[in-house]
Sequence to fold (582 residues):
Amino acid sequence: MSARRRAGFLLLLALAAASCGDDGGSTTPESTTTSTSAALPSSTTTTEPAVTTTTERPLPVEESRSRIVVTGPEEMVFDWTTDRCEDEHIPDIAARAIRTADGVVHLTIGHYVTYRMAGPSLDELTTDCSTVLLDSDYDPDPAQFNDSEWIGSPYTLDGETIYAIAHNEYRGDTHRGSRPGQCPSAMRFPCLDTSFTMQISTDGGDTYRDIVEAPGHLVATLPYTYRDDTVPSGIRQPSNIVRGPDDYFYLFGNISDQPAEEQWVCAMRTDDLADPGSWRAWNGTAWEGDWLDPYREGEATAKEICAPLAPDQLGVSLNDGIVFDERLGRWVMVSVTAHPTSADPQWGVYYATSENLLDWTTRELLLVVPVNQTVADPDNMLVHAYPTIIDPDSPSLSFETSDGEMYLYLSRFNFGGNSLDRDLLRWPISVVDEIVPAPDWDFADDDDLGIDGWRGVNDVAPLTVADGALVIDATGPDPYLEATGLAVPDAYDRLRITMRHDEDVTSHAQLFFVTEDDPSWSEAKSVVFDIAGTGAFEDYELDLSLLAGWEGTILGIRLDPVADRTTTVLVDRVWFPVAPSD
Fold:
């Protein structure tokens, strides 16, 4: 909590419209003055407010922050129509780059038949069809973890020996001939089991092989044997490998667990890339999650080995690509996902940042593109997948750093998942500094009910706007509405609400909020205040600096405009006032 914060009561002042001239005031000229006060709630909106003393503080000043934005149009990197070596040569996992000792840059185009592009830099690449980097063994025995393998995470310390995590898929539907009775549905995903294995190249990245004979090359799998014809399960889509400040090598993956396909992000690390059995997962308290080979070492539960990493911030799948950005001084990870709190999920490419690879900021939208979740027929319509960040100027041989000017790489499925016509694109992205606007809803038109606006949640009729005011028809005893998808700095700690209640309304209102560190609605993060039933618009000011939970980034606010009443409330404006800029 910042030094200016202090324990105490909420300051609630009802301000006259004339007193708000420094920031524009109320948009309703009939606004009158009412004095009232409130205290922190003990239970519900009906909590009686307590009288408090009043204080005055200057308005907060505008805050700035650094964020990542797209700065230019898409560029073609790999065009399947003209650049492929064979039809199965497709970008079916996040692209990865390494630089070998001879100065050549390699960009892997990963599938179960993996090729590369090569050249003097990431800006000058051509397809190399002279050799297959890794051709899968298609072993029908799931206990060998050696079926269809994608190079997912190449890493080199010297540009000569290259270690690589492979995404291995056991495709039960393709082995029905040699394993009678297996996969009776004959469908891909119910019969899919995924794992990570370790590959090595000792010829400068020309070819890769299992680092030791299968199944000894196993790095990670869910701790139970193949479960046929259920749901797709396992650990999949490895991020690139990065070296942390503690000299451990870190890797992130997406777990899809049995029996209900529950998903989460898994973090793991090792201090010895040459030993596939040395990787340990974050189990929620320590790096002690020991991956089991369920065919040889017994079974367990997935969460015993690898706990969900920052689920409120990363969601279930933000793990495709990671770099350390020197301008931000933080790790940046990207994936395709949705907004954590917005009423409209806003699917697209998101990023989150971290100082320590365990604690992450809430994901932010970077690029809106069509993805599986936003098109009617993802099997046959254009979608995108597998994002990663690569900086052509990175001095790292494994391109694990960026300097604030980098590229977002992304696969495009031109005709959906049923087609092999898939390209690799990139967009220039940059770290920029910008003023964080203080949210201000004046309800001048219906736009305020859009993606970043308000929505009725409980005991509220569909919201409407009339004569520049939000119309809230309370239909039950606990009406409330929410504005989510926000990113409000805690320095914006004053909130003003201009609203009108009928003359016979004697009740209370309540404001809730959720933060990046605590994204769950709760009474502990709320305040109750008196409302004035005068039939005129009244201005209420909430001093949120006195609330212990008001810190970090605020992701959403909830307004309970009245308690235990079926009535109509008009809200003219809700805003966070800031001092005028010079």
Q: What stands out?
A: The domain at 12-62+438-575 is CATH 2.60.120.260 (Jelly Rolls). The mean pLDDT is 88. Residues 264 and 311 are 7 Å apart (CA to CA). The first strand starts at residue 12 and ends at 15.
